[in-house]
Amino acid sequence: MNQKRGLTIHFNDSTSITIEFPQQTTNVHARKLLEEEILKRRFLIAEAEGALLYVPFENVKYFTIFPADGELPKTAIRGASISA
What we know:
This protein is an alpha+beta fold. It has one helix and five strands, in the order ββαβββ. The protein has one helix spanning 28-41; strands at 4-11, 16-22, 43-48, 51-56, 60-66. The strands form two sheets. It has a three-stranded antiparallel sheet, with no helix packed on it. A hairpin with a 2-residue loop joins β3 and β4. The longest helix has 14 residues, at 28-41. It is globular, with a radius of gyration of 14 Å. It starts with a strand and ends in an 18-residue tail after the last strand.
């Protein structure tokens, strides 16, 4: 359960930060409930380097979460590539 995962938060002002963290749970159902709770609350909380980081969704353009594994929503586009 020590596989590294990451989250890049892209903010509305075009800045971004990347947070790396260990896998929080191997239970797919528990992970889905955690995702739903984060989306419902509209902010992300991360404990990093002894401090709490609160990120309200109103300041976020989008998230990049890696690796993409496990159960994806049925509406997710799979196998996509990104270009700018």
